[in-house]
Amino acid sequence: MVLDSLGVGELPDAKEYGDEGSHTLEHACLAVGGVWLPHLESLGLSFLAKLRAQQEEPKKLIGSYGKMAELSKGKDTTTGHWEMMGVITEKALPTYPHGFPKKLIQEFEKKIGRKILGNIPASGTEIIKQLGEEHYKTGSPIVYTSGDSVFQVAAHEGIIPLEKLYEICKIARSMLQGEHAVGRVIARPFVGLPGSFTRTHHRHDYSLEPFSQTLLDEMQARQIPCISVGKIWDIFAGRGISRHVSAGPNKEVMEKSLQTLQEAAFTDGFLFVNLVDFDMLYNHRQDPKGLSQALLEFDHFLPSFFDVMRKDDLLMITADHGNDPTDQSTDHTREYVPILCYGKELPGGKNLGIRSSFADCGQTIAEIFGISPLKIGKSFTKELSL
């Protein structure tokens, strides 16, 4: 389960990214006066961040804990998830702090048969406040980016229907290759009237395909079921995934993850889940209160998930990057991510230490399924006493 953007402190090279001092989890919790997360704390989360000003160690640890550093260049959703599955991004995916090149935009306008608005870095909610009314009148899609490697297209669902917006994004994806190969092209639909626009959960990501074989590809080759919930399918362009369960808000992701695990037919395989609201609704909008509430909701959900786990199931909870909601930027931050593990017959209480790569997660999964070792990463099955 990937808690999107839940970083646990600056990486040693954070200064190179302008992220010195960032700590998504700790800063968000302390900004609201502290948060009590008993189930996450029983897995060891409180050893990775100060969740309250006066924080006691949990009475009983049922899980094991550690944190992972990112080897890949960048701090993007794509690079983070790919690294978990064994693919390192040696060169950071391109970003556009001054907007996309004029020639590229002109070619895009020609191919979609429409002029565009924007072409600037912006927050997704702010850009529709600024340009939503003009889009509403003209039908011109809004193109924007951020500090991440993304080409985002916002459009009102009543002005540009979803299927048309998706088609426009597919055109952008086909163009954005080579030197302009951004990690993701993202459809950002919204609804409402001028002055009260709101984004919907009909977002769709069009990612680059991974540069090389991932753990998911290896699983598919061995006919090991891999079921994705949430935006995992988009991040890997569907590669290596045997079944996709569509889900939007965190609540729906949690419900469908629980349902999938309970299915009688799903007795062996890999369930890969992303909870996007932490990043999309709260951290990008610099809303520590919203993030804290989302953490409480996830913590409340965990016992029901524990209950339906089989005795030989292993749960891993992690993140793909940081996004400190208390800093001066709405962009991702270069941070360690947590790794929390739980199994009904595992001893718990193990400190997994500081892992040198997100790929340690994938390497552990590979060992569990008897797959040949990935090119990178070090398994922690022995530390878990598997």
Could you describe the 3D structure shown?
The structure is a single chain. The protein is of the alpha/beta class. The chain has two domains: 2-92 and 210-384, Alkaline Phosphatase, subunit A (3-Layer(aba) Sandwich); 102-207, Phosphopentomutase (Alpha-Beta Plaits), CATH 3.30.70. The protein has helices at 24-31, 38-42, 77-84, 102-112, 124-138, 162-175, 215-221, 232-235, 250-262, 277-283, 288-308, 359-368, 381-384, and strands at 2-3, 64-68, 117-121, 142-145, 150-156, 184-191, 198-199, 204-207, 226-229, 243-245, 270-275, 315-317, 337-342, 351-355. Helix 1 (24-31) crosses helix 11, helix 9 (250-262) runs parallel beside helix 11 (288-308) and helix 10 packs antiparallel against helix 11 (288-308). It starts with a strand and ends with a helix. 49% of the residues are buried.
